[in-house]
């Protein structure tokens, strides 16, 4: 997985400024096949959260608009979560976050 983080860093550095600045709004052929991932909340701010997961070596960004309000109200640093991912130019972006490590 460290290779994935290095590759995303290169994309973020070398791609045109307007290339995939935000996470995709819909799944594509790749993301629709990805499983849910487990992790824990590392940081939570007013509009975004970062989670850590053994599935990726860097923190994973999650915008609060991609998290259900009922889940968002219960998030705190250290909370166990599971989520799906989509990608922006810098790497995976967590979406559809749910509480608990249980992955359906």
UniProtKB/TrEMBL annotation:
Stored Pfam families = CSD (PF00313)
Q: Looking at the record's lineage, which domain of life comes first? A: Bacteria
Query: Start and end of every CSD domain?
Result: 39-97
Kindly give the InterPro entries that the UniProt entry links to this protein.
CSP_DNA-bd, NA-bd_OB-fold
Listed GO molecular functions? nucleic acid binding
Protein name per UniProt: CSD domain-containing protein
Which lineage? Bacteria, Pseudomonadati, Pseudomonadota, Alphaproteobacteria, Hyphomicrobiales
